[in-house]
Amino acid sequence: MKTGGTRRVFYDEKETRSIARRKRDQDTKLARMIRRAYEKSKGFRTMLDDHGIDPSKIRSVKDLERLPVISRPKLIEMEMGDTPYGGFENPTAAVDRIFISPGPVYEPHLPEEDPLWARAYWAAGFRPGDIVLNAFSYHLVAAGLTFHGGLRRVGATVVPSGTASSDIQVQLLRDLSITGFTGTPSFLAALIKRAEELGYDYRKDFKLRRASFAAEPLEASLRARFERDYGIDTYQMYGATEVGDVAYECPEKMGWHICEEVIVEIVDPETGKTVSNNELGEVVITRPNDIFYLFRFATGDLSSIIEEPCPCGRTAHRLNGIAGRVGDAVKVRGMFVAPSQLKKIREQLSGIKFQLWVDRKAHRDILKVHLERAGDEAALRSRFEKAFRDLCTVSIDECEWVEPGTLDGDLIKDRRHWK
Question: What span, in angstroms and rounded, lies between the C-alpha atoms of 134 and 148?
Fold first, then answer.
């Protein structure tokens, strides 16, 4: 294991493997997962047989192109057809937890030996002695508990604040001498604002000097404010509930290192074929494991690969951030909102027409619904907001009534502009 003086620099020796060694290790794990999936999983076996694919021919990462890409809408369809996992599970595996995300998508938790999110937190500098506020939800979804596990793996103490109110979170920051934060950047900004409204001097009254964010972009202007005005060292993590952690920033902050536990492809969204070096494409993930055989999961995010070595010494390739989204589904405050979900809501409301607008104000996603007038407006709004919250998890911020016939055909408009 590489060290710097007496302080361990890397989470483990895998992060400094040669490119050739990493490829051999990935090929070996992938081939084993293919064999096990074909043996254990009726869904995977049927998919390969239907496509005329010989599992013995998939022996390397390059061979993954033989398999179809599975989008989130496709995963929802598969699981609805064969609840809960679409037949892509190992029926003999012992599963510790099952998470649920909007769709619904049921996700068996990865094996405990997987260092889920630990690499990201270690690279961000979290260590034993840190007391970290975890502001991700612990209810049903994977975020709270999986981030909690990553923090504990690096030795940090976790305060599971979850979705508690801003006033309670500010009290925790002060009373517990919190040194680190994990959550969304917009929420940390809101906590700092609330602390100042309560009369606190942030640098004097709080010890929080390190933050690792996920679920929404960290805008350059907000990062600068965190670091310049409040002395908070900020880091970004990237992943998906279906496949876990994918990439993370190191102290160099020159792209996101791909986790050692995942295989990342950057593909043409239309063909599923790997794009040329440095070309923008869709991020597609395979995570070798023996619980849930989800191959080539399409995140819907657009990125490219940085192959040049990073000064930090990690040898994994890096993602060049996220450049945008593929298709019509959008991510709002860390959750996907898909047209298929909106169509289901419309059916539940007997065909009532509406349109969602997604905007960005003060570093926060804002959801606004335009509802066509129809009868009791208060009752309709209440029904819509409940149906939307139940299915999509996130909440509506604003409602505007429009006259019948004035909405165009789009169910959702993403009007955000990232700076």
Answer: 7
Going by the DSSP 8-state scheme, the letter that residue 162 receives in this structure is T
What one-character DSSP code corresponds to residue 70? B
For residue 349, the enclosing domain spans 331-414
- Give the chain's domain count: 1
Q: Is residue 336 part of a domain?
A: yes
In this structure, what DSSP letter does residue 333 have?
T
d(CA 148, CA 354): 38
Amino acid identity of residue 188, one-letter, is: L
**Whole-angstrom distance, CA of residue 67 vs CA of residue 349:** 38
Any idea what the CATH number is for the domain that residue 359 is in?
3.30.300.30
Domain membership of residue 378 (yes or no) is yes
DSSP string, 234-299: EEEEEEETTTEEEEEE-TT-SSEEEPTT-EEEEE-TTT-PBPPTT--EEEEEE---SSB---SEEE
Q: What predicted TM-score, i.e. pTM, was given to this entire model?
A: 0.82
Separation CA 277–CA 318 (nearest Å): 12
234 Cβ contact partners less than 8 Å away, ≥ 6 residues apart:
185, 211, 212, 213, 218, 223, 226, 227
- For 340, the 3-state DSSP assignment is helix
Is 265 within 8 Å of 63 (Cβ atoms)?
no
**Cβ-contact 217, 418 below 8 angstroms:** yes
Give the tens place of pLDDT for each residue, 184-206: 999 999 999 999 999 999 999 99
pLDDT tens, residue by residue, 72-91: 999 999 999 999 999 999 99
Is 103 within the bounds of a domain?
Answer: no
Q: Check whether 4 has a pLDDT greater than 80.
A: no
Residue 337: inside a domain = yes
Which amino acid does the sequence have at 20?
A: A
